[in-house]
Structure formats: C-alpha cells, structure tokens
Amino acid sequence: MAGDSKTEKATPKRRKDERKKGNILVSKDVIAVVSLIGTFFALKVFFPQMLQTINTFIYKAFHYAQTKTDITNDFAMEVSKETMLAFFQIAAPIVCISVALSILATVAQTKPIFVADSLKPKFNRMNPLQGIKKLFSVKSVFDVVKGIIKITILIVMLYSFISKSILSVTRTIQGDVYPSCALLLNLTMSLVFKICLAFLVISVLDYFFQWWEYERQIKMSKHELKEEYKQMEGDPQIKSKIKEVQRKMAMSRMMQAVPQADVVIKNPTHFAVALKYDLEKDSAPILLAKGQDEVALRIIKTAEESDVYVLENKPLARAIYAMTDLNQEIPADFYGTVAEILVYVYQLKNKKIL
C-alpha cells in the first residue's frame, strides 16, 4: 500500500519507544577505535614501568635458575606467583584503560540504558528469510566494503613499513640489543599510530552511515503518524463526539435559563439575546442566553412560551451578541439603551425598577 511507505521522520515518541526496545544508534567502529587509541597511548605512558617489570622478572628467573638445583612444589608455586604478578603488572593498566574507554565510548553514544526486551529470545532472528534479506541489505554491503578497506589499509601499511624499515632494522640488529629494541619499538609505535589514524577516519564514516541507517529504519508512514496522534491526543472522531455532547449540554443549560430572563432582544430572526437584571444582586444586566439563526429562533420560541417579553432591536441585539459572553454583564455602552427597555418591560409587568 502506498500509505504504508515510510517517508516521515520519526517523532520523539517513536524514538523513545525504539530506545525502550533497545534499538539505539551505536557505531561499533567508534568504540573499537577509541579503545585502540587509548591502548596505544597507555602503552606509551606505561612502557617504562612495563619494561622495568619485565627486567625484574627476567632477573628473578635467571636467579632462580642459578640457585635452585631441584624443583619442589614450593619452588613451582613461587615461580607461578612471580609470573602471574609480572603479567598482571604489565597487562592490568592496559586492559583497564581499554575496557574503561570502550564503556565510555558506548555510553557517549547510547546514554545509560537498560533494556529488558533485549534479554528476551527473539525467534524471528532464526528465520532464514530474514537472514537472506539482511545478507543483501545496504548495511551488509557497507560492512563488507568497510572490511575490505580495513584489510587493504593494513596490508598497504605493513608492506610500506617492512619495505622502508627492513634495512635499518637489519643494520641495527647487528649492534647492541637495547638500541635495536628501541628502534624496533619506535617503528612499531609509529605504524600503530598511523593505523589508528586510518581507522579513526573509517570510524567517523561508519558513525555517519549508522546514523543514516538508523534514521531510515525508524521512519514512519503517514498511517503510523495518524495512529500515534490518536494515542497521544485521542481519536479525532471521539473528541468531536465529546465536544458535540458538551455543546448540547451547554445549549440545554442556556435554554433552561431563558424563562428566567426579563427580556429577549432579537434581530429579528438572525440574533437573539436574553437579559436579566436583579436590582439587589446585579450591578448591570446579565446575558443569560444568546444565539444565532436556528438557536435564536429557539430562544425566541422558548421566551414566548415562558411569557418573557420579546423586543426587536437589530443593532442592539447584534452588538450584545458579539461583545458579551454568557453569564456576564453587558458592556457599559449599552446601559442606557437597555435600561430604557427594562423600564418599558417592567411597566408592562407592573414591576418597579427603582
């Protein structure tokens, strides 16, 4: 159906619902490259400490080899303890920094969220047709191309690194050990840094693609927008019926007030206003009812049936109708004219106004 095509941007409610389902925007490449760059700088910062730990471990290993002639359980436990301690001192800072940066990169994209729905089994993922669709989706093609680019970058950089560094490394190896290790370390760190920069560019492109794919995925059809509006604001048809009922109730109350009026002023069938003045309670005449066309005729008919005096005054009826709300005092501009009418009506009814 044409109405089912998703062409509209997602509403805030749709985004909130998708987030509750666990469907959120996240780029795994951004997480990976942040962790990689963090690991790279952690290696540079902690390398002297790591080197010192390695030297101490090697020294102890040679010391044990020279002093211990027989291997006992205690000796094996001591060696295992020293080995695990050295490994922990070397790896712990790097692993902790890498994990912490991965978590930060994830939270920065998704914000803190816990999704219970993600823990539920989703059997539609086992559907082979869904798998085939995903295989030929735009996202799958992008991931394949991205993977090829990454592999190509690694091959090119490794080839460039080896071809440019092989001679200098070979010459240095023939000398002292420490200068050779230092040169090899510097070259390796330089290679890793270049790889980090290349992958950083790829991760930025991946983030923008994931954003585009996510926005495309959560788009809504016009029918979905209409249904969401109904849920949030109520069905327009139901709201219309409620307003109609409220209007009828207000009309009924207004018509019930007409018999209490002192006078109804008409124009002659298009407008009608019913006024009441209580000298003891009111400072000015009050508008009890007003109507136009059919409602005006009903007011006039009710007034005649209730023995309320009906008077024709076209400009006054129209002006009071336009400028006065129900159950409110008439404007001061009309006091004089309305007072004359009420005096006349009261005289007819033998009532005293003063």
**Got a strand count?**
4
Major sheet: size, sense and barrel closure? 4 strands, mixed
Q: State the CATH topology of one domain.
A: name from scop
Radius of gyration: 44 Å
Which regions have little confidence, pLDDT < 50, spanning 5+ residues?
A: none
- Number of helical regions: 11
Strand content: 5-15%
Structural class: alpha+beta
Helix fraction by DSSP (H/I, runs of at least 4): 55-70%
Distance between the termini: 75 Å
Mean pLDDT: 82
Shape: rod-shaped
Helix and strand succession? HHHHHHHHEEEHEHH
CATH architectural grouping of one domain = 3-Layer(aba) Sandwich
- The CATH homologous superfamily of one domain is named secretion proteins EscU
According to CATH, what is the class of one domain? Answer: Alpha Beta
Major beta sheet, strand line-up: 3-2-1-4
Give a brief outline of the structure.
The protein is of the alpha+beta class.
What does this structure look like?
This protein has 354 residues and is of the alpha+beta class. Helix content is 69%, strand content 6%. The chain is built from eleven helices and four strands; from the N terminus they run ααααααααβββαβαα. It has helices spanning 12-21, 28-67, 73-110, 128-135, 138-173, 177-217, 222-233, 236-257, 294-305, 314-323, 335-348, and strands at 263-267, 271-276, 286-292, 309-312. Strands 3-2-1-4 form a four-stranded mixed beta sheet, sandwiched between helices. The longest helix has 41 residues, at 177-217. The radius of gyration is 44 Å and the shape is rod-shaped.
